[in-house]
Amino acid sequence: MSTTIRAVAPGRVNLIGDHTDYMGGLVLPMAIDLHTTVIGVRGGDRIRLTSAQDAEPLDLVLPVGDPALVTPAWGRYVAGVAAELDAITVAEGRNGVDGFTGTVSSTVPPGSGLSSSAALELAVALALGMDASAVELATRCQRAELAATGVPCGIMDQLCSAAGVAGHALLIDCTTLEVTPVPDPTDLTVWVIDSGQPRTLDGSAYAERRAECEAAAALIGPLPSAPAEHIELLDDELHRRRARHVRSECDRVRAFAAALAADDAERAGELMLESHASLRDDFEVSTPTLDALVERLAARPGVLGARLTGAGFGGSVVALTSPDVDLTDAGAGGRRVVASAGAFVEDVTDSP
Ligand code: GLA
């Protein structure tokens, strides 16, 4: 009898620390109770997956060619991961990645800034048999995303999905890739509110922002630790603003973690609002829809803080509230999320 594999990977919400990961800065995301699941059987010379979300199945002949050319579009992430795994197996003197036949389904809404693509990459990597540390899994899946979409994303989403800890957010230093679980404040609730404005990173100015930060860093060194006086010396006003965001956002991540540890919910909420303002004004990745939603949320009783989460340009807002608050009616719909464990794979051959 062949072994049936089930691989599950969570999406994530970032509490604070956006557009810092690709500059080696600090982030504080948590894996959430929305997941992508791949179930099936390994073997054969192709990857065949049907999707609960898309009528068009994926039928990928191995070894894969250019992942960016695969259809349906979600299959590009699968192909990117398969190409990574193929490279590992060949380097180890084996014959390349095995095929897989199964299904993929997800409760992570695509285009909402909750890392549906990272969840898919991690679930596929584990389903296909990638056996590695959380950091290596995440690094490989980050490379897969670049091959699939051409977007030079950072490591946050993949590492959060791989290393999630139930009941904890993760403080990640994106230079050392050290992950420190930070206990969830038990007396607070995290909400994710859909702005109703979808976004994809390949249609956004994400790569442009990253290039602007790299240009600034080439002049003054690593932005997460750049002294304010060096930032102010940058000639280009745009570079100054981008660098100011990265530096101040890393400081806010540290302060937010300290506020949680000190049970200072009010300070944590203020830092979220400051983060949103910096992403809006200095980094210019917000939109009028996101700004209006954050403003409306901040005015509601019991809401401590709110900010765009992830790349911006649409997607979702994250809010921190006292437990009695109900945001289900906010924006295009709010959902309470809970910090979840990271991606895992199991043999479910005998399961009912
Ligand atoms: C996207 C990317 C991440 C990160 C965020 C912004 O989610 O995939 O690597 O850069 O945007 O913080």
Q: Could you outline the blueprint of secondary structure elements for this entry?
A:
Blueprint lengths: L3 E13 L9 E17 L3 E6 L6 E4 L13 H17 L8 E7 L9 H12 L6 H16 L6 H8 L4 E6 L4 E6 L5 E9 L8 H15 L7 H6 L3 H25 L3 H17 L6 H11 L4 E6 L6 E7 L12 E4 L6 E4 L5
Helix pairs in contact: 1-2, 1-3, 2-3, 2-4, 3-4, 5-7, 7-8
Bound molecules: alpha-D-galactopyranose.
Description of the molecule:
There is one protein chain. With 352 residues, this protein is α+β, with helices and mostly antiparallel strands. The protein folds into two domains: 4-182 and 342-347, Ribosomal Protein S5, domain 2, CATH 3.30.230.10; 189-337, Alpha-Beta Plaits, CATH 3.30.70.890. It is 36% helix and 25% strand. The chain contains nine helices and twelve strands. The strands form two sheets. Strands 1, 2, 3, 4, 5, 6, 7 and 12 form an eight-stranded mixed beta sheet that branches. It has a four-stranded antiparallel beta sheet with strand order 9-10-8-11. Strand 9 and strand 10 (315-321) form a beta hairpin. Helix 3 (134-149) packs antiparallel against helix 4 and helix 5 (206-220) packs across helix 7. The model has no long low-confidence stretch (mean pLDDT 95). Alpha-D-galactopyranose (GLA) is lined by residues 18-19, 21-22, 153-154, 156-157, 310-311.
